[in-house]
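lol so apparently i was supposed to do this last week
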Amino acid sequence: MRSWARPPARRAAMLLPWARGLGARCLNRQLPLACGAPLRERAARGHGAGGKGLVLGIYSSEKDEGPAQFTSAGDAFDRLVSGKLRELLAVCGPPLKKGKTRIFHGLHQDFPSVVVVGLGKKNAGVNDQENWDEGKENIRAAVAAGCRHIQDLEIPCVEVDPCGDAQAAAEGSVLGLHEYNELKQKKKLVVTPQLHGSAESEAWQKGVIYAEGQNLARYLMEAPANYITPIKFAEQIEQKLRSFSNVKVHIRPESWIATHQMGAFLSVAKGSAEPPIFLEIHYLGGANTNDSPLVFVGKGVTFDSGGISLKPSSGMDAMRADMGGAATICSAIVTAAALNLPLNIIGLAPLCENMPSGKANKPGDVVRAKNGKTIQVDNTDAEGRLLLADALCYAHNFNARAIVNAATLTGAMDVALGSAATGVFTNSSWLWTHLYEASILTGDRVWRMPLFEHYTKQVTDCPLADLSNIGKYSRAGGACTAAAFLKEFVTASHWAHLDIAGVMSNKDEVPYLRKGMAGRPTRTLVEFAARLSQDSHNTK
Ligand code: BES
Ligand code: ZN
Ligand code: ZN
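anyway here it is w/ zinc ion bound
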């Protein structure tokens, strides 16, 4: 049996805490109507005559003119309705393109609305140019479009064709339907996706858990900064992890941070009226509690105004998601716990706001990090590396197998790669290979970036201190000089820095994510941890 399928530490731990109490298949927070709610009740609430929606996949024909090919679930349904679905598809327009949908009503009493979705070519597999599994990506995108179509019709429950890869189908459904609705009085109908048929139910459940992990990160990132302050962030994560007997959460206050001589982190935090928090999570899923852990570190700036080096006001609201590093690593740990992955993981998240005030850092100030290095704060908007410097020093206390940090660190990362991939700066090809291979499966891609000495020189040439917090040629290679800065706080031989600024939000680039904060690359972190749990190399 694969490790993720092992029985969890506690039965209740299979579901993420905020999904609990809603039944195993009801995934969202406010479920207005259970799938099995009486038809009378549903009709009274304006959801039509009841019945479920059904999403079925169809492949494009190999030849341009040939007939399209149903999945096995599509074939079975077509037989059930005496070939009517195939007939209707043939007369209702051109062949269905990849990711497009077509809806049919009244074919079957259990499924009054059937959405057929285009899956593209059968056996698509890994695309070496794109560095992802195209078959899985096609399923995610098609199923997401189909489920949203059902949601538009206000049908509260949808069964989904596994399309030959139930994990990808579940991910497409759960990611595609997610929307941040918390603060609106009028909420969109919550639709509950279920697997159509009984095959592949374990893979489906795994996909639901992966997607819910990413949705948790999206939720934390999207929420306004006055709702997700450092303490609120920590409390949310603590609440998600409360039910797992093999997880410990420590919410460290400012006094603890000062005792641990995290002067760089504190220098950023002191500009804000919100007290900082250092969140420390220990997930003990390994065979032995003293097995060397994987250590995750995440930048947790719950709002980045830039400080005295104030950012322009236009678009500043997006900086509520500057805790995306903390959100993705913490959500990955919540997901690892839900999957009961057999390894130990420690999560570290320095959390604070970056604000201008009479107590804030001033350009030219010099601060001292935990390892004794002094840093000239030439730009107060380059605050993330100050938090991470101290958190990375602290990460070295755990005899880690690997240290992986994630941070919305530089606008320059977005300039370099946009939202196509997370930039990975690493001193370890072993670590790189695991991250890269994980990302091919998840479709949430990574791309290796340089950690040259060339960039180190640009941050160590500093008038007043050991290091400057910006490169001396200001904007040139901004993501690389930031990574070189972090490297000054790392002695571990397997370390990776993930700059996630470019993948922080989604406009329409990832078709199975709605517009908004993306929660990327949570699933890649989870898949990476799952792979590491299977790797006996370098277990220390
Ligand atoms: N949080 C920002 C980086 C960022 C920008 C994340 C856009 C997501 C989207 C970071 O703290 C920052 O402001 N970095 C500066 C560094 C510069 C002053 C060297 C930047 O990128 O402009
Ligand atoms: Zn900043
Ligand atoms: Zn920032």
